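Q: A reviewer asked whether we had any structural model of the full assembly, not just the individual parts. We don't, so I'm hoping you can provide one. Inputs are below.
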Amino acid sequence: MERIITRFVTALRERGIRVSPGESLDAVQALTFGGLSGRESVKALLRLTLVKNVNDIPAFEEVFDRFFSTGQQNTLGLDAMDLLTALIHIVEGEQLKAEEHRTREKDDPLLIVDEEVTAEDLENLLAMEESDDESAGAEIMVQLDGHRGKMEAPSPSDYYMKSPPTVAFQPSSSKPKVAPFTPEELADMQEVVSRMLVRIRKDVKRMKELESRGKLHVIRTIQKNYRHGMVPFLLSLRRKRKEKPRLVVLCDVSYSVSHATRFMLLLLHTLQNRLMHVRSFVFNRELAEITPMLRNMPVNCLLETIDRGDIVNLDDNSDFGNVFVEFKKKHLENMRGKPAIIIMGDARNNYNDANEWALEEIREKAGYMLWLTPEERETWHRGDCLMELYGTFCDRVEVVRDVDELSRMVEDLFYTLYDHHDTRSWKGRHREQKDEEPQDYRSYYTRKGGAAPAFDATVRRQW
Amino acid sequence: MITELEVKDLLRRGGYIADETISTAVFLALRMEKPILIEGPPGVGKTGLAKTLSEVMDFPLVRLQCYEGIDEGKALYDWEYGKQLLYTQLLRTQLDSYLSESADLRAAVERLSAEESLFFSRNFLVQRPILRSFLSEKRSLLLIDEIDRSGDEFEALLLECLSDFQVSVPELGVIPARNRPLAILTSNGTRMISDALRRRCLFLYIGYPEFDREVAIVRSRFPELCEGLALQMVEFLRKARELNLRKPPSVSETLDWAQVLSILHTKQLTPEVVANTVGVIAKHQADLQQVNELAAQMMG
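A: Here is a predicted structure for the entire assembly that you could use as a starting point for your response.
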């Protein structure tokens, strides 16, 4: 039985479920106690001991059903020996006899062995992948040369400089057909966010401790120490009250930045309610608030809704000027306190009115204004990009291109907000930490003013 | 030794209709002396299982409600400073005479430190829920409720207790459990519980029950309710769960509703009945309307 369990555990691990040796021991023990009374009860026993996560249950069921399938044959209905000989034939370069092949094909149409496949073919196939000489075409060579010697990933910046044929192969920007997150992506992001959350929380606790260093709260100290006969073992200090930071996010959902936007929304709403108040808006030509939806809906559903164009029309071109005016008119008056405002977009206004006066008014009301753009600085003056103009009203403009960078930006911002009137020592510590950080992030180079690569093989690979 | 079927039977007698997985989990926990970690949406009977178990197995229930910031002083043990202080005060005269025999200050300190164990003894130890359940005369049921509300530190604290059933007190050493309690941890899944803790537990996910089981639950609690109505309301609630509600009705809502309907002597569900009692099943303004619409659609 131990052997069966071990093999089953291996199957589970292959399927991506993490099972520790201790757990498989538990499973064996459970089976000895519970007995092998029936399929369902064994399944329950194994599930209780081996699976420790709700999300893994469907995968477990699948592996269980396959592993302990009722019939004798394995799932594909293939004979292992048959497969083995076929493999040997291929490896040794021996061609399968036509009739042998035909009979096999009749037995199981699932395995289709091409008669023509020989060892040479396979070698050729391998050789093709590895060729990186002149034979691969001059154009690729030029592109490679452009990146040679630089430890940089190609940036998405020169999307707009592409020659028409290349651009045509990129997904058309007018059709916002971005698939929602895959479960893996979602899990990845959640991991990034939760790691960040742990970090932030720790620091917030620290900051709160520092904060509480203040005058003695006499009454509360006496109350607290009543049981100790008024001997002040425990001190109670007056605490400065501080509100959670308020944050307003305006996200462009047009195709060019949509992936960044998606992550942003997820990120902010994990932070929401725990560490800060967030109000989120999405816009393309018109503006819409999505705060309540984010609260009630799973992120993926919401993203699908956005993708369908139910919230803002996605067929329009984005119009930042109009959005700012709208935001000022409808929402700015209702903002409490001095919120920090994050605008996420590429500032490509499609030659509409800039309306920078609206942004200026927003700026006056905001405590802090941050603009995040996926575009490199070099391209800001090209075409319809108004980044230079809008940038003058912001406290900070940053280029972010991948999940890591974005999460770090938000973390940074968070500290800035929380830190407003906090102690020096904390700030110093944070700065140190920041200096150490760059090594961890692959694409940090651009902040230091590195030149954009001349050629770009993988346009917007990151997003 | 108890068997799986007996567990199921016992639970049924206690008014808890368990399915195969639940009864197996309880059975295993009893045999393997491992804690159970129960996850699932609110109101499906996670805590209810623990309560029923403590009743039918006659294990005293020791409950620890988790919250943010809970620590060992609240969960494991604490020193009773007040009592310690009081004792030193009362024993002052004895102490004086005891210490006066020593020649100088150094000797006095040495003498006193030899008696240190007096002040850090079990007399002054306040037992908090976990330690209390470990030291109870009878085998107890330790319910650690809503563990997801506590912090990571607290989870780490539980690791020792739950894997070895012992508590380490620096001043006293390791205190092993007198009777290993049946430990049940519940979580609503608002926060991911660490893998380390999961590994030490049997993992039981309780979702919304299947149709038959839910009907059986209603019937067992409210036998006076006629069967047609029970079927009808369970079917309705199952449909309601499929709506995208903010707070989908859970088993506890089913039972509340069943109670309301039996008080009102309802014989059959109609849109009016639903509209009058909708507050029992829907807990948000936006949900009320959706539930009413569903009622009109299903029965109208």
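A: Points you may want to mention in the reply: The CA atoms of residues 98 and 154 of chain B lie 42 Å apart. Chain B touches chain A at residues 4, 20-21, 24-25, 27-28, 31-32, 34, 37, 39, 81-82, 85-86, 89, 152, 189, 192, 195, 198-199, 201-205, 244, 246 (CB under 8 Å).
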